[in-house]
Amino acid sequence: MKRILSGIQPSGRPHLGNYLGAMRQHIEMQEKFECFLFIADLHALTTVRNAEDMRSQTFDLAVSYLALGLDPTRTVFFKQSDLSEHAELCWIFDCITKMPFVERAHAWKDAQNKGKKDISVGLFNYPILQAADILLYQPDLVPVGQDQKQHIEMTRDIAQNFNNIFGETFKTPEAEIKEEVAIVPGTDGMKMSKSYGNTIEIFADEKTLKKQVMSIVTSSVPLEDPKDPESCNVFNLYKLIADPKETKEMEDLYQKGGFGYGEAKNALLQKILSYFAEARERYEKISNKKDFVHDILNEGAKKAKKVAEKTLEEAKKKIGYI
Ligand code: ADP
Ligand code: TRP
Q1: What is the predicted pLDDT for the residue at 118?
Q2: 204-275 and 3-184+290-319 share a CATH fold
Q3: For a Cys staple, 316 with which of 102, 180, 257, 321, CB 3.0–4.6 Å?
Q4: pLDDT in tens, 154-185
């Protein structure tokens, strides 16, 4: 059976982009594959600066996954910082990876281009820690959104580099990217991202959710005129969660004219609420069960450790530490 691994940072509340681009695949894949999924809280330390935020965002992400249908009896679900192996393998990779290779990473290049001078070593090193996260579990596939493609390519290069130097140790995994949801647009039409403040949060209270949906930027075509659905952010989000029949009906309304953006936004809001109705209910229930959630993550960490430990030991033998 193929093995899948993915991680997601607890850097804010999950949004439609996270869900459609990554989380939904993580949950669907547990039906067919052996799955490992972790909360990347070591990576989150590149931005989070407050213990309460770290704790609450980690908990919130765990609750979100469980509410969305992650089954901890089928997926090994854990927290990255519960295992020392990730940071340990990261150091090993640090020592065999050249600076210019890491300087090619988008996140670093973007920060450079913005003239940022105070970038942490951790942020620079981010892709190497990610390579360690992945390679420890020897997965076949890594399901992520388009923005992570480069990190998976770097992971493959790092695996090959280690294997060339010390002998065959790591499997080179493939990124698994769903093209139709590779880049989910945000309320301003740019890629939906916590860092752009253009998100629609799937577990926000109804009032906040409404505000976020109503803030979607639309064109100034008058209400009575026909509109082009494909160039409208509201439609582009709607079609990602509506079924084909509903999508076709919405498309016709746009093309006929007399259908305003206010109505389209309302339809999108109702669709989000119905699509996530069960998950939102479960979210409320699980949010109050702190011990239940912590027990799941602790169990997951134990299972993950067995696999990570074995791979790290293999790497250490190849290096000559043991
Ligand atoms: P953000 O950009 O909001 O900080 P993350 O970087 O934490 O999101 O991304 C978590 C996962 O969600 C990644 O696998 C990423 O590829 C996916 N993802 C994030 N935003 C989008 C988007 N707008 N469209 C598709 N996938 C996305
Ligand atoms: N960098 C990923 C993101 O921002 C999170 C992540 C960390 C990850 N380690 C990973 C994703 C390993 C896949 C595999 O979304």
Answers
A1: 86
A2: no
A3: 321
A4: 999 999 999 999 999 999 999 999 888 889 99
Integer Cα distance of 43 and 307 in angstroms: 21
200 falls in which pLDDT band (50, 70, 90)?
very high
CATH class of 3-184+290-319: alpha beta
Ligand 2 centre from 211 Cα, in Å?
29
Whole-angstrom distance, CA of residue 226 vs CA of residue 251:
10
User: Residue 250 — φ and ψ, nearest 5°?
Assistant: -65, -40
Minimal-distance CA residue to ligand 2 atom 3? 8
Give the predicted TM-score (pTM) of the model.
0.95
**Alpha helices, DSSP H, located in the chain:** 16-18, 24-29, 41-44, 51-68, 85-96, 99-103, 106-113, 121-135, 149-166, 206-214, 233-241, 244-256, 261-275, 277-287, 290-319
Q: Which of 149, 201, 139, 200 is nearest to 170 (CA)?
A: 139
Q: Could you confirm whether domain 204-275 is CATH 1.10.10.10? A: no
> Which residue shows structure tokens 């951790």?
122
